[in-house]
Specification:
- The protein is mainly α and 268 residues long.
- It is built from eight helices and four strands, in the order H-H-H-E-E-H-H-H-E-E-H-H.
- Helix 1 packs antiparallel against helix 8 and helix 6 packs antiparallel against helix 7.
- It has a domain of 124 residues: Orthogonal Bundle (Cytochrome Bc1 Complex, Chain D, domain 2).
- The strands form two sheets. It has a two-stranded antiparallel sheet. It has a two-stranded antiparallel ribbon with strand order 3-4.
- The chain binds heme C.
- Heme C binds next to helix 2 and helix 6.
Length: 268
């Protein structure tokens, strides 16, 4: 039975290490406790939240933040906010086509050597708000709005950190902290002073599903969307991980059974 015990221990240890993502300490700012559907071993993206988060990104963030590694059709891939079983090929999905129609992209050069604008197709990547980093800095008082494609993964405790950042703006800085022109006080940001003005305020967007658009709600939704953008294959990967674990478990039991059978009549 010892072997069985060892196998069971390994199995439990492996599943625990997969699930360990608890918040310990932040990098400098203060983190607010917040929980997301995609955390933990079985966590998946809350599709409704991710769809609302896409709306928040579009209406409240995309004028400054690019998301250059995500193609419009990725929104309809398995595990994505707008995945539709009836349209496994996202480029054919009417929802994705409708989203693509919201954008114009620069293409070219044409036969005369000029760049031109055209309506976006599902295969296009999200158009960036600025032509380059210099233009982005020039419009933001010297601060560069980071690209959203990997941001949740690039920050320690990404989801909690970004949620805290979006909900922690304060008008008044504590005694001794001077808010320089163009800066904003936000205790969640390392150092407390951030170049980004508060991007969210009550009912900034109007959700079509009737959800009340509080700052906390929008922050939660946009973080869910950004988490998906940073790790679009998470759901597929987790499912695969479980299949492999279950397969190995059954395989181990079979091996144990055959070991017993083979050695049954042999003294050892
Ligand atoms: C008016 C332009 C503007 C808008 C709109 C905007 N941001 Fe920003 N954002 C910035 C700038 C500039 C920075 C860089 C700040 C700095 O380094 O001081 C930034 C930084 C960030 C950061 C990174 C903080 C870090 O740790 O480096 C996050 C996360 C972020 N923004 C999220 C959002 C979200 C989510 C939205 C939409 C709800 C949004 N931003 C809307 C300009 C903007």
């Amino acid at each position: 039975m010892r072997l069985l015990k060892i196998i069971a221990t390994l199995f439990v240890a492996a599943s625990l290490s997969l699930g360990a993502s608890a918040v310990s300490a932040s990098e400098g700012g203060e983190l607010k406790a917040s929980h997301f559907s995609f955390e933990g071993l079985f966590g998946t993206y809350d599709k409704a939240a991710a769809q609302r988060g896409f709306q928040v990104y579009q209406e409240a963030c995309s004028s400054c933040h690019a998301m250059s590694l995500v193609a419009i059709r990725n929104l309809g891939d398995p595990g994505a906010p707008f995945y539709d079983e009836e349209h496994p090929n996202a480029s054919e999905s009417p929802v994705i086509k409708a989203i693509a129609a919201m954008f114009t992209v620069t293409d070219g050069p044409d036969n005369e050597g000029d760049m031109f604008e055209r309506p976006a197709k599902p295969s296009d990547y999200f158009p960036a708000p600025f032509a380059n980093d210099q233009a982005a800095r020039a419009s933001n008082g010297g601060a560069l709005p980071p690209d959203f494609s990997m941001l949740v993964r690039a920050r320690a405790h990404g989801p909690q950190y970004i949620y805290s950042l979006l909900t922690s703006y304060e008008d008044e800085a504590p005694e001794g902290v001077e808010i320089r022109p163009g800066m904003n006080y936000n205790p969640a940001f390392n150092g407390g002073l951030i170049g980004m003005p508060p991007p969210l305020f009550e009912e900034l967007v109007e959700y079509s599903d009737g959800t009340h658009a509080s700052v906390e709600q929008m922050a939660h939704d946009v973080v869910t969307f950004m988490a998906w953008a940073s790790d679009p294959k998470m759901e597929v990967r987790k499912r695969m991980g479980w299949m492999v674990m279950i397969y190995l478990f059954i395989f181990a039991l079979l091996m144990y059974g055959s070991y017993k059978a083979v050695w049954r009549d042999v003294k050892h």
